[in-house]
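QA checklist item 7 of 12: single-chain prediction sanity check.
[x] sequence parsed
[x] length recorded as 339
[x] structure emitted
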Amino acid sequence: MIAYSAEPPAAPACGSPGPPGPAPGPDGRDVLVHRAVVYQSRHELALTAVPYLREGGRAGDPLVVIASPPVAGLVREQLGPATAAPVEFIDAADWFGGPMQALASYHDRMRADWWPRGRVRLLAEPGWAGRTPLETREWKRHEAILNVVFAGTPTSIMCAYDASALPGHVLGDAARTHPELAGPDGPRPSPRFTDPADFYAECNAGPLSPPPATASRRAFAAGELPGLRAFLEAEAGRLGLPADRTLPFVLAANEVATDVIREGGGRGVLWVWAEAGTLLCDVGDPGRALADRFLGYTPPRGRGRRSETAMWAVRRLCHIVEIRSGVSGTRVRLHVRLG
């Protein structure tokens, strides 16, 4: 049994804003560079990626490669021992477990390790194989959001897309989520680049499917959060969520319910069910239309931003979080992997 206090718990430590990002320098060069390189072979990738990294090495930039072992090995070999020595290599399978987990890792490492040493230069190879349609959509959204959350920072990201392995819709949307396209002849503007706010809105098109008839339902209001947490813990156990993931799930759902009570309509309804290896939880707020404009994708900016702080913590605690909001209220859907 997990013990809880009678009062809603504070946001987890991962919700701490941490130090602010670097202020733009007087020369105005602290501007995000975000490029996609679409390649047919690893040799073709090396023709673009290796000069990009060498240029950063000459400038003294922190160099980071987040890629699969075969791509990392090729880059290391092509760079040569002298240039490859200061490069930080990270296995893409460890980094790209989930879109919000990757974004949070970017936030944490940039502030703690990379920006203090200069303009970070990244080569990133997101993994698309084996993703569900929902996960694929959220990874595309992730690429669009990078343009917003790291705007005005000393960051350069080159994202690698293997045209021989990826479906056409992933390759097509790479041109919509990256302002620039890279190649052996140098970068060029992407003619299909889409405003991140518009792309984000497309990802939210259509309502969430209703919870199944078998979902467990519970209404809540002020003073009822201890009972709600006990209900969530019991349902998580019944549906097979491992014990080490139960507390993060309960904390996430409790944060959303607390925000409904304090900032929304004051009362709401919650549903819990499992499907396709995922524990799902819908939290409905019939009394508020929430302004979901990149909500929870950046660390909270100071005090007095309850919804922003809550959703930053909630997104980090879950695999995926979906929000739909309009005149009939707001629904937040939490996805937590069972396996």
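[x] summary fact logged: The chain has a mean pLDDT of 88.
[ ] second reviewer sign-off
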